[in-house]
Request: fold
Amino acid sequence: MAKKKEMEGEVFYPSEQVVEQARVKDWEAMAEKADKDLEGFWSAEASELEWYKKWDKVLDDSKKPFFKWFTGAKVNIVHNAIDRHLKTYRKNKLALIWESEDGKEHLTYSYFAMNREVSRMANIIKAMGVRKGDRVTIYMGRIPEIVFAMLACAKIGAVHSVVFGGFSAEALHGRIEDSQSKLVITQDGNYVNGKIVDLKRTVDEALKRCPSVENVLVVRRTGQDTPMDPLRDHWYHELAKLPVANGKCPTEEMDAEDPLYILYTSGSTGKPKAILHVHGGYMVGTYTTLKYVFDLKDEDRFWCAADPGWVTGHSYIVYGPLLNGATSFMFEGGPAYPYPNRWWQCVERYGINILYTAPTAIRGLMRFGEAWPNKHDLSSLRLLGSVGEPINPEAWKWYHRVIGKEQCPIMDTWWQTETGMFMITPTPTVPLKPGSGTRPFFGQQAEIVDEAGNPVKDGDEGYLVLKRPWPSMLRTIYGDPDRYVNQYWSKFPGKYLAGDSARRDADGYYWIIGRVDDVINVSGHRLGTAEIESALVSHPAVAEAAAIGLPHEVKGTGIHAFCLLRAGFAPSESLAEELRQHVAKVISPIARPEDVKFVDKLPKTRSGKIMRRVLKARAQGLPEGDVSTLEE
Ligand code: WT7
Reply:
């Protein structure tokens, strides 16, 4: 602990017990080794997994920024997530534990059972004509079948495109159309805070204009009345009884660089981007990061409390845990329904060892006070995690003290849909500073640069860039390779532009400040200002709109909208409310603005770009900064 005095700011050191248990005891040595031999590091990790055929090359950067990993190799992520475990004692180990929102249903699946369920779903979608390379949209809540559906697609080489179950028909429509999916997998309804959200009806609405979709597979969850198109729609439980569903299903041999999934995320302009991940590199990246960062032990029960609809759920509810042969826990409900002890009840009931969640959830639960967690035995917890946005030190300390009883290091993991895996993150023995994700993961180098691409001084703010390729990096934006190059690799050639501003302190620790592009991070969900603005303008009353993010106590950032009305419409409270609802309906309730203000004009540059920065400064009563480009 000699380092104690040398580090700046408030530092939390790991206990002896943490160090004793940790897989990586000497972080520095490991980082140095990976840094010196990037390909050696990743090829050693990849060798822990099974390949039908090994790679010719670990990293192929001959066509950068279109990097390729493990070229020439044959593999399927499902072979490593399920098949290989069946040859070992893990056949009988739990792969998935699930609890329903109301707490009345508990389901568990061993790896053996997981294989059976995934094979069944795979046989069914294959019988529907889904083939290698075809896209399948999955629009579901947190039920075991969403996991089966994702893995079933991967098993037969189809490309899944999961759309978060909270998205509207319009948002779903756009994503189905862009991906040209052949099949949609959904469920009749989804329980959300005691109410049913009609997922199937939303699919019906979305499919009115989606000619690519041939079939809809519907999982029965609520048993509610559900309209079914006799030619297009099929109940899963009915097909599951057929002989065709119940045989063995071979796992398709894939090229390491074959697509595994696409996942839509918001960017600075226009429509959401389809981020593409592949079988080989993504598998190695999620396997390795979860193993080292959350230090999985064979007997652990790991709970990533995200939704499978986001990348966090893809990488760390589904793929990462199963690749490690771990036990993943998934809870259908939210943290505070019916009472704010719901999560703590789950931790106690299932003996969760590692809990990984978002700052917004922690801030939300903090508001209900310590009495709720204190009712429960949380002593099984060994490690905690945070993701989605910078965690404010107050929330960090509450999480550390009240949930972790000062015994559990908090892994603050910075990463993105695009990176597929943790990029800036501690491992358990790294000294922690509340609010910092510490340093880049093994093999990675980050930098903070100014507008011209030159590194800034420690302590100064700048653009966060990543300097080295990593196996689970996005391969492209599906259907739009130019946008991939422009968005991530053009501003600072040769460096990956994350879209975040950050600073680095004297200890080499990174502190994320927030997005620098026109992306608003609401409760860890990415929303583009452009999406919100076009939703507002799609309302007959609105001529022009601007959306900005302002600090919000629980959500981190809340959306605030400014609207210029068309002639014939007058500002009113009820119209403001109508517009808020309208955005919720067009995009998702997540996107509902905190408030809508009516203005006579919006600050714009002479070239007509809305200066959101000026609106933001005005709203906060701050100086407007350089307004030399402001019109008139
Ligand atoms: C953006 C990516 C990766 C899963 C969740 C979000 C912000 C993410 C952190 C963190 C500070 C964070 C960044 C990033 N972000 N994790 N630990 N500390 N900021 O994935 O929707 O692709 O959003 O979320 O701004 O760019 P995403």
The radius of gyration is 24 Å.
